[in-house]
TrEMBL record:
Entries under InterPro entries matching the protein: Transposase_17, Transposase_17_sf
Record-linked SUPFAM superfamilies: Transposase IS200-like
Protein name (database record): Transposase IS200-like domain-containing protein
GO terms of biological process kind: DNA transposition
Domain Transposase IS200-like: residue ranges: 2-104
NCBIfam families: transpos_IS200
Example GO molecular function: DNA binding
Amino acid sequence: MFTDVMLARCEEIMRNVCADFEVELREFNGEHDHVHLLVHYPPKVALSKLVNSLKGVSARYLRQEYDTHVRKYLWGGHFWSGSYFAGSVGGAPISVLRQYIEQQSRPV
């Protein structure tokens, strides 16, 4: 359901949420039905709370701003699914991680 414009807005929203948590969103990219984030966060941040806030705030704003487009794609009225994947990449070079995220295709 994401267009390039919606992905750009989603990135902006998620960067603001990360700033509120004192977290750095290092890379962002997305496809038509999901997004990829590379986030650097301190141990004091509970990952589940960060993810819930990223999903909740972005859903609220994107639904308000793109309601007519989004409505037909919602999963039972939900913007995001209840699941997410998080992996630790402490040993991988940042250049490799950035390359992976940048190479994820964006919708046309």
